[in-house]
User: What shape does this take?
Amino acid sequence: MSTQLDPVPQPAEGTPYGQTVEPERWVPRPWFKRWEDDEFTPRGPLNVGAGLLRAQGAVARDLFSDRNLNTYIAGCGLIMVFASLLYGAILGSVGGAGQVAYAAIKFPVVIVGACGICLPSFYVFQALTGARLSLKQAVASVLMLGAAAGLILLGCAPIAWFFSVSTTEDAGAFLGLMHAVIIALSTTFGFHFITRTHRYVAWKHGERLFDGRVLALWFVLLVLVAAQMASYLGPLDTDRGMLETRRGFFLSALFEV
Amino acid sequence: MTAVVGNLLHAPDRHFRLAWRMPARTNLRLLAGGVVGAMAWGAAMGSHVGRMHLLITTVKMPLFFLFTLALCFPLMHITLLVCGVRAKATQTLTVALSGLSVLALCLGACAPVVALFCASAPIPSMASYLNLYVLCLLCGVVAGVAGLRVLARGMRSLCTGRVRVPLLAWALIYQFTGAQVAWVLRPWIGSSYGVDGYSLSHGLSGNFYLGVGKVLLRWLTELGVIS
Assistant: This one.
């Protein structure tokens, strides 16, 4: 029997803290370096938005290591509600003052409700596929997705408002398309943030905070649920009252439009 | 103001190095330079119809640039941050104002030429109106390219990576919103068949993109492409 030990495999160059990762799968990308340099400590819930925009790497590290999660949950929840409330008011501004109030209440209900409905499935299926994610981290992740999307909605809000007030003639289709593009862009950004967090954590720690395939499927589910809630509550339907709901599949409502 | 404008035109890199030391003062001077350029350009466009229209367009042009920037600024700042350029809001404002000032100064530099053609073009004449429109468009394209180059320099002074994505995003956001703001503040050159001041109710009617769509539809119908 040979007494000579096999050579110990050396960690890939540039790997943080010498941890073993799968170099073929997680090749360091340029933005990994940027995220590594990010530094951020949330001073309070109102400060969380700055972290989501300026120091995403630090937020991802906090999420992975369960640091300051209560502050992140409170801050992201606030951003999500405030952004959807403001954008809802802009959505309703085409239909007069009453519709502004209705849409400002209904739109946050759609957004927060869709996140709430999809949260259990997110946590359970992530756990089933081997992701190391606590319930608190799952809540924070979903809220971070919503808050990141909300920040883009806030950025687009002045432009959307201007188009809403300066467009009068037969422009329902144009405004609808514009709002759809803005909402799609903001949702994509939220998902993009969570996906990058997943990649960064996998590269940095060699562990999976999320399962990528479940994440992608869950995102499709979230979009479907949000669309169905929007169809049911109708924040954009000027003919409906505050508590009036309408049954039916959202795709058939879409085809009617 | 002249020193800031001189640096901006001759040595944009130096301008941005100096601007990061005293951003507030630089922003004010950029604003002043940009407003002067925009007013000159507005006056040149308004000289086609003249009298009251000239004064109104002179006031409207800086308003157009600044109102569009005010609407777009939050999204522009967020875009910059999301693309990895870790800028403060004042730095974003400096970069945006630098680009806009160069754009307005280039337009201001073209203003005497445009004013000559505008003032000497026959009125009312749809052909001369269209020619002036094309002339203004060409000046706008040249000034736009100069402004974009300064924007790119400004973004590069804030980060080490490539800035193509945020630059394109900024151009897209500003153009998309600016087109509608210009629509609301129309007329600019002024109709060849007489313009009587500015009416907000006229400005708020319709939408730029729907207007373009209608014109295209009419052309296609007249050409017999669609019935």
Summary: Residues 1-24 of chain A have pLDDT under 50 and may be disordered. DSSP finds nine helices and no strands in chain A.
